[in-house]
Amino acid sequence: MPLNRRRFAKLTAASAVASFTTSARIGAAKAAPRVKAIAFDGLVVFDLRPIVALTEELFPGRGAEVSSAWRTRQFEYTWLRTLTGNYANFWQVTGDALTFTTKLLDLDITQEKHDRLMEAFLRLKAWPDVLPTLTAFKDAGVRMAFLSDFSAEMLDVNIRSAGLDGLFGDHLSTDRVRAFKPDPRTYRMGIESFKLKREEIVFAAFGGWDAAGAKRFGYPTFWCNRLKLPVEELGVVPDSIGSSTEELAAFVQTL
After folding, report:
1. Is residue 35 a contact partner of residue 251, using CB atoms and an 8 Å limit?
2. Cα 202–Cα 205–Cα 210 angle in degrees, nearest 5
3. One domain for residues 138 and 250
4. Of the candidates 198, 195, 200, 194, the residue with the CA atom closest to the CA atom of residue 214
5. Do both 134 and 219 map to the same domain?
6. DSSP character for 187?
7. Residue 149 near residue 42 (C-beta atoms within 8 A)
8. Sheet of 37-40: strands edge to edge?
9. 223 and 184 in one domain?
10. Bridge partners for 145 per DSSP
11. 66 and 143 together in one domain
């Protein structure tokens, strides 16, 4: 039976993860890899699907509509605040976007519903593929950090919620530079924190616009396109596209 492309990609990705683990166990008796660190957008690691499910529970029949409007406004606010020099952390932006969405869609929302939706951003779990892959990276000596719009506090509580303690270095929250991605100041945090050349740092993006920003900045860029969206029309494309961190591992192995 011929091997289809999807199954081939999956097998290749799984092999790459195993390769990281094996090389770490035998002492990696070969030249140091070119990639020495990976900077992750938060949503490559944290799964927002339970928030979408909660939105449907609270607003039956309108969950997808509410989630889409909320998320769209959430990121539009980050870009507008950066452009106007009116920074507020991502927690506030998320709350403001939710408030606007409820008005836009004329939702009957109580304070309890509002609080439940916001608190869901503090109880995120990891995508199923994340823990084995990131553990393999760590075992192989690849340094990792979040380079994320999330505040450091949001990252801390979600790392604990997802059972990912001990895998990441210092959080490169956009709070440090008071500008949101894709402002170049945000991506520069990776170079300054890791103290590496940009070609030694892979950026793993969740959003296509974030992948474009990181690639434009000069990072080898992997777009973890979990939502199977088309490439953004921004005049630049990521170096590799996949839908899991296993495929990220396969990409790193090629560099």
Report:
1. no
2. 110
3. yes
4. 198
5. yes
6. H
7. yes
8. 172-173, 143-148, 37-40, 201-205, 221-224, 240-242
9. yes
10. 39
11. no
- For the chain, how many structural domains are there in total? 2
The model carries a pTM of 0.88
Q: What is the DSSP letter of 241?
A: E
Q: Please indicate, yes or no, whether residues 158 and 221 belong to a single structural domain of this protein.
A: yes
Mark whether 180 and 76 lie in a shared domain. no
Q: What is the pLDDT of residues 95-134, one digit of tens each?
A: 999 999 999 999 999 999 999 999 999 999 999 999 999 9
Q: Are residues 86 and 38 in the same domain?
A: no
Give me the torsion for CA of 192, 195, 201, 203, rounded to 10°.
-20
pLDDT in tens, 224-252: 999 999 999 999 999 999 999 999 999 99
With tokens 């000069």, the residue in question is: 218
Shared-domain flag, residues 118 and 184: no
Domain boundary pick from 122, 138, 168: 122
**Regions of the chain where pLDDT drops below 50:** 1-12, 24-29
In terms of Cβ atoms closer than 10 Å to its own Cβ (0-12, 13-18, 19+), residue 60 is exposed
106 counts as catalytic: no
Domain limits at 67? 49-122
d(CA 209, CA 114): 28
Q: Give the tokens for residue 249.
A: 């591992």
Alpha-carbon span 208 to 223, nearest angstrom: 7
Domain holding 91: CATH number?
1.10.150.240
